[in-house]
Specification:
The chain has 173 residues and is mainly alpha-helical. Helix content is 51%, strand content 9%. It has a three-stranded antiparallel beta sheet, with no helix packed on it. It is elongated.
Length: 173
Amino acid sequence: MAVCACKDAFSLFAPASAPAPTICAPLSFSLISPPSTLFPSLSSSAKILKKPILAISLAVPQKYVYPDPIPEFADKETQKFKAELLKKLSKDKDTFGNDCEKVVNICAEIFNDFLHKEYGGPGTLLVEPFTDMLVVLKEKKLPGAPVAARAALLWAQNYVDRDWENWTLQPDK
């Protein structure tokens, strides 16, 4: 169950002279069974707790703070991304023709910008840079925009979080 930890609940535990809190926070409480109901073998010896106990705790939501981007990681990961994307897309000459390097350079530039400004480790890989790749490639009328954006996204999903974890575990970085 949950209730509001406002003035009435506060007054149960604080001296009358204490000011009441100005912010309400959720309280959670539950009934705890006496040992005799949890452990039947103790029923004869557990005479202290015959009634359920009301346990109250203040539920404070915790916010996870992601680390800041690491420029050295962003640079190395962009180089790896660019090499792997070029390798993958250059196999598809029918789609990209002579524009493969232009496509890869645009994707790498957008990816690099994202890694430097927004990526802070696992849980922070967003879809926006990949949709940006698609939009920019289409605006520049370069071939294979959907194929390139999808390949970039799949590569990032498979490698970026793992590479970040490996990078942060290295003692000499």
